[in-house]
Amino acid sequence: MTLIRKAKIGLAALAATALLAGCGNAEALLPGNTNQTLASDGSPEVLLGTDHEAPEAAPRRDFNKDATVVSLTFDDGNASQLTAVKAMDELGLKGTFYVNTSVLETDGYYSLEQLDDMVREGHEIGGHALQHRNLKEQSLEEVQRQVCWDRQNLLEWGYQATNFAYPEAAASKEIEKIAEECGYNSARGLGSLRSITGCDECDVVEDFDPKNLFYTKVPAMVESNWTLQDLKDQVTTAEQAGGGWVQLTFHHVCPEVCNDISIEADIFKEFIRWLKDREQSTGTVVRTVNDVIGGELQPAVAPKMKTTEQTGNLVVNSSLEEESEHDLLKCWQMAGYGNNAASGSVTGNGPNGSQALRLEISEYTDGDAKFLQRMDAGQCSPEVVPGQRYELRSTYQADTDTQFVVYLRDETGEWVYWKASEWFAPNESGTQAKWVTPQIPEGFTGMSFGLSLFSQGTLLVDEVQMSVKAD
């Protein structure tokens, strides 16, 4: 089977955590006015993948009721996990890797070639949503796009995605139903089994036939304070309880990445060697999630894209008056890249005397900072039509030059840097920036844009508009 895949363009995929200092709930650092471009014809490039045959979804295995089965699962598609992959391959152990497809092929995450290699070794690739967002903070329409789009990508790239893990373990009955409707056979939570973090009244194992396939019970995720003995205890406690299923969840492997949710490589290697020996001494085995859950491979379910009439102002919360529990303001995020000290806030003293966003760079070496529409699957980001041009407007007040920077969302849900406008001069009394984009290239469905700072200074933004440019 030959996989047809797009080439990743630029590094504009959303990061899981904010890196800008003082940016509140900012979510990502994204490239700004770089030399990155699309293919020469304005369309996404394609490249041929490998010729491996992805394994068909296996029927579930029947385990003795007193068996203990351990699943080693890994979240987020972090490339630091490759140390663990290599160690598992040396022992013939298989894991389940839940990935967010929008960040694959970007710095710090798996490439498709690496996932191909893992599949050839027998590892399972599962879904983790298009972007790593708390699904309970999204509309149900956005949840459907995040979950179904992610799985559609995996299937189109040749991976047999039958199982899912909720980002941040955030789910509800409605979200569980969406995971099922998107074609998954199971979905995993976190923290509903007893572990070193507590939950003393909880069960110590999940059943081989879970009562709720779409929120299977697992211990809390493994963090940097887990010792080798803690990992062993999670398994031996299950054995002593009469057997059952234990899913262990890992994120990063140190020393490649060391933080609060990483495990030391030496501890992991010693643990899996102990697990491998356990198979002979007690019959405890390591199996993938698909080995336990089984089930037929369901067809892809297309994301239900938002259908927005291309009339009027397409920007959500364009006047910056609507508050949010999760962002600086509803549908707005702060972003940037490079070496600079940037901060963002909401001010009631905008250019028009109303509420506005205030951006400041106090120390600058390189890069930029900006406010953008939330780069999502359609809840906040305006939809665009290939071939159409759009007029962008924003009232601003600045003591240095500024310009519009524009990102586009492609057909796989990845965000890429596209264009920047001409510079707009400093204006401390308030004026309007206006720019008309070139035609949107084929293969793109969404836009996010905003005025940015590329030097030390202050920028206030208000009354943001985007409309179809009538030719």
Mean pLDDT over the residues = 87
Hey, roughly how much beta strand do the residues contain?
Answer: 25-35%
Number of helices: 7
How many angstroms does the end-to-end distance come to?
45 Å
Q: What percent of residues adopt helix (DSSP H or I)?
A: 10-25%
Largest sheet: 5 strands, parallel
Topology pattern, helix = H, strand = E? EEEHEHEHEHEHEEEHEHEEEEEEEEEE
Assembly level: single chain
Q: What is the 3D shape?
A: elongated
Helix and strand content put the structural class at alpha/beta
Radius of gyration: 24 Å
**Low-confidence segments:** 1-57
Counted beta strands: 21
Structural description of this entry:
The protein has 471 residues and is of the alpha/beta class. The chain is built from seven helices and 21 strands. The strands form six sheets. Strands 3, 4, 5, 8 and 11 form a five-stranded parallel sheet that branches. A five-stranded antiparallel sheet has the order 12-15-20-17-18, with no helix packed on it. Strand 6, helix 4 and strand 7 form a beta-alpha-beta unit. The protein is elongated, with a radius of gyration of 24 Å. The relative contact order is 0.16. The N terminus is likely disordered.
Helices and strands in order:
Layout: E1 4-6, E2 46-48, E3 68-75, H1 82-91, E4 96-99, H2 112-120, E5 124-127, H3 140-156, E6 163-165, H4 173-181, E7 186-188, H5 228-240, E8 244-250, E9 252-254, E10 262-264, H6 265-281, E11 285-286, H7 289-293, E12 332-337, E13 340-347, E14 356-364, E15 368-373, E16 390-398, E17 402-410, E18 415-420, E19 427-436, E20 444-453, E21 457-468
Parallel strand pairs: 3-4, 3-8, 3-11, 4-5, 6-7, 9-10
Antiparallel strand pairs: 1-2, 12-15, 13-14, 14-21, 15-20, 16-19, 16-21, 17-18, 17-20
Helix pairs in contact: 1-6, 3-4
